[in-house]
Amino acid sequence: MAIPVIYNFRSVKERWTSAIVAVLGIAGTVGVFVAMLALARGFRATLVSSGSYDNAIVMRAGATSEMMSGITLDTVKILQDEPGVARLEGQPMVTSEVVVVAPFPLRSTGTDANVQVRGVSANVLTVRKNVKIIEGRMFQPGLSELVVGRNATNTYAGLTLGNRVRFGGGEWSVVGVFDAGDSAFDSEAWCDSRVLDDVYKRPTNIFQSATLHLTSPDALQALKDAVSKDPRLDVDVAREVEYYAKQSQTFTRLITVLGGLVAAVMGIGAIFGALNTMYSAVSERGREIAVMRALGFGALAVVFSFLIEALLISFVGGAIGCVAVLPLNGFTTGTMNWQTFSHMAFAFRITPNLLAGGIIFALGMGVAGGLLPAIHAAMRPISSALRSL
Amino acid sequence: MVSVNADGNSKALIQVRGLNKTYRRGGEPIQVLQGLNLDVDKGDFVAFMGPSGSGKTTLLNLLGGLDVPTAGAISVAGDEITHMSSGRLTEWRARHVGFVFQMYNLVPVLTASQNVELPLLLTRLSRSERKAHVEAALAIVGLQGRADHFPRQLSGGQEQRVAIARAVVSDPTFLLCDEPTGDLDRKSADEIMALIEELVRQHKKTVLMVTHDPVVAARAHTVLHLEKGVLVEAAKSSPGAAAGGAA
Ligand SMILES: Nc1ncnc2c1ncn2[C@@H]1O[C@H](COP(=O)(O)OP(=O)(O)O)[C@@H](O)[C@H]1O
Ligand SMILES: [Mg+2]
User: Fold this and answer.
1) A153 and A293 share one domain
2) A365 within domain boundaries
């Protein structure tokens, strides 16, 4: 049978000061680890929530983002009649869109950041059902009117309801604020696509993407099949959520790799802290260990006992790290969306899974730091350990 | 009966034959035990004396399976322990040996009863059986009322009683006591010795004890001196005289 856990519990409590190095090292590492992943998840969640399961986004074949895509009005007209495209009162539920970026000063710093301005079809709210006007009204087709996302109005100076702003050589009135459920659209400003083309002196028969509302989520395959068979079309069709999930990949990977590197470096430091704590525990308690061994506890029982102690310490460290970063949950920050080079707001997202991951990471560091000292404790000759004071 | 010059196979509980222990310090061999023989019967109470550094602790460590000899054999109740693997030796210690040390060596973060319970965690006893054994052992040493005290809340004499309770709780084959009174004042030492005598007399324990105190040694049935790496018998004092010389 094993050495009772109460022994480790009380030993740690008794000499808690020597555990501080290990606890703080592990807490710091887990905190950074969880925060970085929460950032990546928040970013991803924001982009993914922009898409809907029952929408399909169509871009030029081979285009990896809207910025690089272009499709003609003729293409959109063909698409509207393809199978799987939903209709409302006889009209196809399709929004064909153009995207530009315009600089607006950030409220926080006063420096300019790129806001994504999306020219959309007038029926966009029927296609993107996750977007709702919460203040003011929708823009009127044909007028230089803007509706702005909730984050956009909070983040940028000037994009407030009732205000007039200049960009792209035109003057625009902000007539409404919309809520896009914390998605990337919340950081955008929307207007009539034809007006946008007009102001930017672009051809009005070229769009960057079309988003089609599907009759059902399952209708995507039929649409894809039809599009690929249609010789007039040279486009890629993707489920909208999948498109946005892909959009989030670069940044998510960047943050994950960066966070992983930082956590790894800090983790090595924390493991050394744990090693130090555990080695001093082992050397301070050499006699106690020898007595246990003399009483008949095996070498393995000693290894387990000190491993449990290391796990105990690292669990406390991990828990402190998690609790310390928990207030970040929901905290909104912004970053460049690398695909569109526009500014996008998103919130840290700390999930129970992420916290569990943080604790597992902590326990891993505990094992890494505790194993050698534990083996060392078990290997010491009993008779000489009993002689030592 | 205790004998220091037996050879061959006897019926003794503990049989030590040709025991050698050589330490090495900086390449220099230090011969501590040199062909030591010893027979101890069940129920014997033996005291080992000898100057500091003569190898008394070394001998007890070898008898208790805490260390291995350079040469020679030790068998206890028919078990030859000198060639056991360390894992088997660990199990053997748990079953057969009760240790009492000069420095008490209680685990400071465990209460008296938790310390006494430690050896029982290595048995198949249930929780309630363990509790009963611990209570009985603490009663033998007269510390029923201190079960929940931590070692630092006890006097030296009381700590040593807890250590004795821990040594006997699993009813081992024999007890090894290394200067059990070495750190105690005379009064506490007498109490501890009275307790050890009681264990021998009433509970039929076999006790091997190291001491450098002749008054303490006089309590034993037999006093052996460790000289030049072997044991020699001291002038015999009868058990009755030792008992009569208490206090
Ligand atoms: N691990 C060891 N390494 C080297 N020498 C040792 C070791 N243990 C004990 N000794 C030496 O062996 C001799 C006997 O020690 P010990 O058995 O402790 O004697 P005693 O208990 O009679 O005082 C001493 O000279 C001591 O220094
Ligand atoms: Mg000694």
Assistant:
1) no
2) yes
